[in-house]
Design a protein that fits this description.
This protein has helices at residues 24-34, 153-156, 169-180, 248-259, 268-284, and strands spanning 9-10, 13-18, 54-86, 93-96, 99-102, 109-129, 134-135, 146-149, 188-213, 218-225, 231-232. With 285 residues, the protein is an alpha+beta fold. The protein has one domain. Strands 1, 2, 3, 6, 7, 8, 9, 10 and 11 form a nine-stranded mixed β-sheet that branches. The protein has a two-stranded antiparallel sheet with strand order 4-5. Strand 6 and strand 7 form a beta hairpin. Helix 3 (169-180) runs parallel beside helix 4. The longest helix is centred in the C-terminal third of the chain and has 17 residues, at 268-284.
């Protein structure tokens, strides 16, 4: 017997903005305090810049993003089973609850037919950098102040761009479900539940600066994380912006419909592929 995967749910979907702990005044001072570090790889004892020889020629504030997804599955069921119960070599027969069982002298065991009451629990967690579609540990960000937003319009209203998102919600839902969906060999299923309990897209500010070492005509790019204040000496300027704004409803509707249209016994990848095609056709009409 297989589980009824139509009971899959997606819940607690949120767009989250992590609070900026810097601001332009603080971050510009950090640049002045750290700008010599930007050229650490190319300077030497004979060629070392002075602070006044380095100037900021470009600065930007942007939002980058990461996904945090948690999926959980619980299966409770009963199934018939047979156990070989070992006994002492002198035992000929065993009485269990009034029923007699003959002992096999070759194995010194008797066979007991039972009904197993089973419970299985699984959990899958993903953290994905949205701009690169790569797994990365963002756990420490979850401890910083944040707030839920309804639309990305709230992020860009002052002109701050958002780095383009390579990873989509439906891709992550598909990936988590592929891990949580398990074959169940059961005679009676008591409980079956698969839940995407957290599907959150976090946005965090990044300040990027391009510096010019005037005497050598050398450039370097650094950035500061607006949440952790960490310095990145190998930064790059934004290359592609997110073209459209979206709301939390827009972002997660697709993933919910995928989760609600899984067919019991079907191939998960093929099934979802058909649903994606179907929904794409709907949106293009």
């Amino acid at each position: 017997m297989s589980a009824d995967f139509n009971k899959i749910r997606v819940e607690n979907e949120k767009l989250v903005m992590l609070e900026d702990s810097l601001g332009w005044d603080k971050v510009r001072q950090l640049v002045q305090d750290n700008k010599l570090k930007a050229f650490g790889g190319i300077m030497n004892l004979l060629s070392k810049p002075k602070a006044e020889e380095i100037e900021v020629i470009y600065e930007e504030r942007r939002f980058e993003a990461f996904w945090h997804v948690i999926g959980k599955a619980e299966f409770e069921y009963k199934k018939r089973n047979k156990y070989q119960v070992p006994v002492a070599s002198i035992v000929k027969e065993v009485n269990v609850l009034g029923q007699e069982f003959q002992v096999d002298k070759n194995s010194n065991a008797f066979e007991l037919e039972v009904v197993d009451h089973c419970f299985e629990e699984y959990r899958e967690e993903l953290m994905i950098e949205a701009k690169s579609d790569q797994a990365k540990n963002f756990t420490h960000y979850l401890h910083f102040p944040s707030r839920t937003i309804e639309s990305t319009e709230e992020l860009i209203k002052d002109g701050t761009p958002i780095v383009n998102l390579e990873t989509r919600a439906q891709t992550l839902v598909r990936q988590v479900l592929a891990t949580l969906v398990k074959p169940i060999k059961a005679d009676e299923i008591l409980k079956e539940e698969i839940v995407i309990s957290d599907l959150n897209l976090y946005f965090f500010p990044v300040y990027t600066f391009e510096l010019l070492w005037k005497n050598k005509d050398k450039k370097a790019t650094i950035s500061f994380d607006g949440v952790t204040t960490d310095l990145n000496l190998k930064a790059v300027k934004i290359s592609e912006k997110l073209k459209d704004t979206f709301t939390s409803e827009d972002l997660f509707e697709f993933s919910k419909e995928i989760a609600q249209n899984i067919i019991p016994g079907g191939g998960l990848a093929v099934m979802m592929g058909k649903k994606v095609l179907e929904m794409s056709k709907k949106k293009s009409t």
